[in-house]
Write a structure and sequence with these properties.
4 domains; single chain; Glutaredoxin; Immunoglobulin-like; 31 strands; six-stranded mixed β-sheet; seven-stranded mixed β-sheet; 21 helices
Length: 757
């Protein structure tokens, strides 16, 4: 037994060491851990009492609260908003606060805004006359908040300082931990035409009938976020990085012309009084219509209102609880339809608001898409907690707020529309309604990490789109980010970059994160593990403020899978994936000691007999390959050693169940790309059958350039294809097949870029 153990040990040594150069190489200097599988200990914040190592909120997690009571006037004649608000701020943090930070997002359009000064670039492709006048003829838009006062509840002025889009309010007394304070702000501002410079809110003017359609948000001074991660989130608003906001309760009164139709965030408390008797009756019918929308305000009624231009006013009363923001839409042009959607044991109203310019497209699709989105996202994450979700038609828009969003998708004047317009509208409505989950409820910091709301939402959007219509042309599949990931590296930033500083927001914050999650679900984890982890993250952090570390840790915690290699490569670097077949070698099996084995034994002072009887795989292109070996067609019956072993150790029935393995291959996979990724392989056999095999990403642990795999089969391999279904964003498919296939033309650009670099 000792001799056998010695022989086995020596054989293992032979396998590892034989063939290496006997001459000692010059020693290279040591290095830090450069493995692609290095843990993210340095990148992620240390777990603490606020945020745990599992990715869940800690025992001392806290968040602030801001409640608002507002009276708003929509001045349709002058396109202005007038407002007065009382903010009650609750300091739930363990720290005392000397001052408060308030966001003044409208100041991004103020004459002294920083945005034009920090925006570089040449001339735009085109200019609308209004934009040309503003930029070059010395008549800039007079935007931004005009603050009339900032006062305490008693009416005393509070010292404050406006720093562009942020305002610091200096408190007369420190706001103690656990205490609250209330103060008043009065303001007004000129509403921008959102079609001129793609503002996130504003109005669209319709010259033919002289009306305006308003989609209004960022219309009031809003509290900034204070949390355990960085204290006050008071980064300037430069137009891209969206809004970090605390949750709170809202009571909002909005005065509009009497002929307007309005809806917005929260319960519309006086809807019955705001509608005609017939319209109110239709709305009640919509509350019981689960299969199709009911038109509440008809196109005929909207067209009559377009001509009225009432000088009277009415006040809409809305109340919302536990929301992080507020938005509303108002116009005399609006048509409104609605239907009920069963979410769990609750009814939720899916509502669409649009001018006649949106028809027939909007009447046909919008509310149906809202309903589908509510169902799909509820299944994916958690049941929609609010009582309604509104889709508002607005030219060139795509923007989200709690319970309400604006969306593009306008037919031509004759009512016709292309498939592209239709699909674009379905996609944007799904996306913007989906934002109710990310970030309106799972309330991430958009100013820092755009991908945490846009990327996660774009992924969930893909699933919802396929539920609405199988084979819908969703945009964020891995194959669709190849051109971005293979582009000019000087114009690409890692996903983990503050959102204002990324070069290409669309691919960086939307498509690439979504494609990465798709890869995790379809390739790395599978549906069961991924879906459980994704839902766990959403449920842990609903109505809370998560960070990237909370997401990464929760996904690993709930799936039981180490994904640090994936986060590091996909989110922290600009590496791309490129895996191919470098070479394929054929082997035969024999029980005759080869020349190589004899040399190995001699090198260690042994004879071949000392190794005992063994089987050997021999490369058909090597010197060890002989004519006798070529005659082995059936290893089980042609090789006495194997035949005898099977006969002595397996019954006849057991031998019949064994594989009839006749073909042996060594496949060498190469990885020119920097990303670590599983190897998805399709083996195509001579009889036309196929077999798909996934080699996990961990196969690259010890060699980041190339690895070898032995593949044994009862059928001869005719073809090998890597990632045949384009699931891993492989940027160069020229090396993906054996025998080599002609290069796909779509990768010409990538190869040119790679050659130049």
């Amino acid at each position: 037994m000792k001799k056998i153990a010695l022989c086995v040990s020596l054989l293992m040594i032979f396998t590892v060491s034989f063939g290496q150069e006997s001459k000692q190489k010059e020693r290279e200097p040591g290095h830090y851990n450069i493995s692609k599988f290095k843990q993210l200990k340095e990148e992620l914040a240390t777990p603490n009492v606020y945020r745990t190592g599992s990715g869940a909120p800690g025992p001392n997690y806290y968040q602030q609260q801001a409640d608002y009571k507002m009276d708003i006037i929509l001045d349709d004649k002058n396109q202005r908003i007038y407002g007065e608000e009382i903010i009650t701020y609750y300091n739930n943090s363990p720290e005392d606060l000397e001052y408060l930070w308030v966001q003044l997002d409208q100041n991004v359009r103020a004459p002294d805004s920083q945005k034009p000064q920090v925006t570089a670039g040449g001339p735009s492709v085109l200019y609308k006359p209004q934009k040309f006048t503003q930029e070059f003829l010395g008549k800039p838009f007079d935007g931004g908040f005009k603050i009339d006062f900032v006062q305490d509840i008693a009416g005393n002025d509070l010292p404050h300082f406006i720093n562009h889009t942020m305002m610091r309010i200096d408190l007369p007394e420190v706001l103690k931990s656990g205490a609250k304070t209330s103060f008043k702000i009065k303001w007004w501002y000129n509403i921008p035409d959102h079609t001129v410079n793609r503002a996130r809110s504003g109005y669209e003017h319709f010259p033919k009938d002289g009306n305006n359609a308003y989609v209004i948000a960022q219309f009031f001074p809003r509290m900034a976020v204070y949390n355990d991660v960085e204290g006050w989130q008071n980064l300037q608003f430069l137009g891209r990085g969206e809004f970090a906001l605390p949750f709170g309760n809202y009571e909002v009164n909005i005065t509009t012309p009497a002929d307007h139709i309005l809806d917005g965030t929260g319960h519309l408390l006086n809807r019955k009084e705001m509608l005609t008797a017939q319209q109110w009756k239709r709305y009640q019918q919509a509350e019981k219509s689960y299969d199709k929308p009911v038109i509440v305000v008809t196109q005929d009624e909207a067209e009559k209102s377009e001509k009225s231009f009432s000088k009277k006013t009415k006040t809409w009363k809305l109340k919302a609880e536990m929301v992080r923001d507020f938005g509303f839409a108002s116009s005399r042009k609006f048509i409104l339809d609605a239907q009920a959607v069963k979410i769990g044991d609750r009814d939720v109203m899916a509502i669409s608001i649009y001018p006649k310019e949106g028809n027939p497209l909007w009447e046909e699709y919008s509310t149906r898409v809202v309903a589908n989105t509510l169902k799909s996202y509820s299944d994916q994450m958690f049941d929609y907690p609010y009582h309604k979700a509104i889709s508002v038609h607005a030219k060139q828009q795509g923007m989200e707020y709690p319970m309400i969003c604006w969306n593009y998708g306008r037919p031509k004047e004759d009512g016709t529309y292309s498939t592209r317009t239709r699909n674009g509208m379905i996609g944007v409505i799904t996306h913007e309604v989906g934002h109710n989950w990310f970030p309106m409820i799972v309330n991430s910091d958009e100013r820092q990490w755009g991908w945490m709301d846009e990327g996660l939402n774009t992924f969930a959007q893909m699933i919802a789109e396929q539920r609405f219509e199988p084979n819908f042309p969703s945009r964020a599949y891995p194959k669709n980010v190849v051109s971005y990931m293979s582009g000019d590296q000087s114009r690409i930033t890692p996903i983990m970059t503050q959102h204002d500083n990324v070069f290409q927001s669309g691919p960086n914050a939307y498509s690439k994160p979504a494609a990465g999650l798709y890869i995790l679900r379809e390739v790395v984890l599978g549906h069961e593990l991924f879906d459980k982890a994704f839902k766990t993250y959403a449920q842990r952090w609903k109505f809370k403020h998560p960070t990237p570390a909370d997401f990464f840790r929760t996904m690993e915690d709930a799936s039981g899978t180490d994904l640090d290699w994936f986060w590091r490569g996909w989110f922290y670097t600009t590496d791309y994936n490129d895996i191919g077949v470098k070479d394929v070698k054929k082997y035969v099996v024999t029980d005759k000691p080869t020349a190589r084995v004899k040399r190995m034994a001699k090198a260690y002072g042994m004879s071949v007999e000392d190794l005992g009887p063994n089987l050997y795989l021999v490369n058909t292109d090597s010197d060890d390959y002989t004519a006798d070996m070529a005659n082995v067609k059936d290893p089980v019956n042609d090789i006495p050693l194997l035949k005898e072993y099977l006969k002595d150790n397996f019954s006849k029935e057991e031998r019949k169940a064994l594989k009839d393995t006749k073909y042996f291959y060594e496949i060498i996979f190469e990885k020119p790309g920097g990303l670590v990724m599983p190897i998805l392989v399709e083996y195509v056999f001579a009889d036309g059958s196929k077999k798909e095999v996934t080699y996990p990403a961990e196969i690259w642990r010890f060699n980041d350039k190339e690895i070898k795999k032995v593949f044994a089969s009862d059928k001869e391999i005719k073809e090998i294809n890597v990632d045949p279904n384009k699931l891993t964003a492989d940027v160069d498919t020229e090396n993906n097949s054996w025998p080599k296939k002609k290069e796909d033309s779509q990768f010409d650009k990538f190869k040119k870029n790679k050659a130049q670099n």
